[in-house]
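tl;dr need the bound structure. longer version: we got a ligand (pyridoxal-5'-phosphate) that a collaborator sent over and nobodys looked at where it sits. i said id run it. heres the input, straight from their email, havent touched it
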Amino acid sequence: MTSHVMPTYGRLPVTFTRGEGVWLWDDNNKQYLDALSGIAVCGLGHAHPAVHRAICEQSSKLLHTSNIYRIAVQEQLADRLIENSGMDNVFFCNSGAEANEAAIKLARKFGHERGIDVPAIIVTEMSFHGRTLATLSATGNTKIQKGFEPLVEGFVRVPYNDINAIKSALEKNPNIVAILLEPIQGEGGINIPGNDYLNQIRDLCNQHNLLMMLDEIQSGMGRTGKFLAYQHNGILPDVCTLAKALGNGVPIGACLASGKAATLFTAGNHGSTFGGNPLACSAALAVLDTLDKDNLIALAEQKGQTICLQLSKHLQNNLHIKDIRHKGLMIGIELDVPCLGLVQMALDNGLLINVTQEKVIRLLPPLIIDEAQIGQLVDILSRLITQFTDQLSPVSHYAA
Ligand SMILES: *Cc1c(COP(=O)(O)O)cnc(C)c1O
């Protein structure tokens, strides 16, 4: 049967019909452990009762009015995000790419107000910021850009986790007004920078009067063991973007600003018809309530550590494992061989995982995963990795 959906995704041959917590069921009623959370979206797992209740209650009252009127739940959500992040205000939209578009517009406006007519933003290699024209131009992956040139101008690329590269870009280019990066790269392979990388960037941004803009779309909402990953560094960025887990599956994005970045947009500068509508905001409020009530953020660190320790133990004799790394429940298992085949093997065995950058198994399990489920995840995955690497052709020293 042919699908009339544009073939923009290489889709796996499975259709899910329902979920509960970490579990999903397909249309043959086969059960799967979801260790990917719809790519870091369903942090509270599937069909969470608090989110379900919030959506039902809100939809019985009001779905949408538009942003030409005040929206009480939107203001409540902004208050809660500000409390949790230390930022000053929020623009609401519907996706991660849109949140980054708002950030990019803020940087350009900041530049123009500083008298810079052609403002430029430093971005990093291996980054991912979205699929709109500006965000794919900011993204550090030529595969995502190919065929869509001309790219949006005004991005200067540097290697990730290299503070000297930023310093020399600043020396060469007087038009730089901002730095945009992920605190931990997700699509780029779960790349965790040095402990003080973000602090050094904060210092540089202060010295050079630049906006420090963090894309926390994947790393935010408690996934790394803090509400936002920058909170591990005790710093505050000027701009921070959120989406993915903010609505636990209801589309919502947010661009948070602080200090001088918080006063750049004035009436008429930016907008979104759906952004911050009552339905999406009530879902996000339920997400924030649940993260607090169930202490899920603090637990994310312990859970990630347990998963990685157990995996390391099971795989300690496997010479194909290059690295097992994590911050909270943002987990990468890097092999020395391409391992895309593991995704289908895992699917066959009732486990949902992802492979990024060809060699990095990416796990983004729901924050609600419990000890028994962690045990199951580790057992299935370590068995499959062993099976996968055992069937690789023997290493070259056996060849004559
Ligand atoms: C997913 C993601 C985006 C894009 O979000 P969309 O909602 O798909 O537009 C941007 N940045 C990062 C770090 C992401 O993980």
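gonna send this back to them w/ a short note. Residues 95-97, 100, 128-130, 182, 186, 215, 217-218, 243-244 surround pyridoxal-5'-phosphate (CB under 6 Å).
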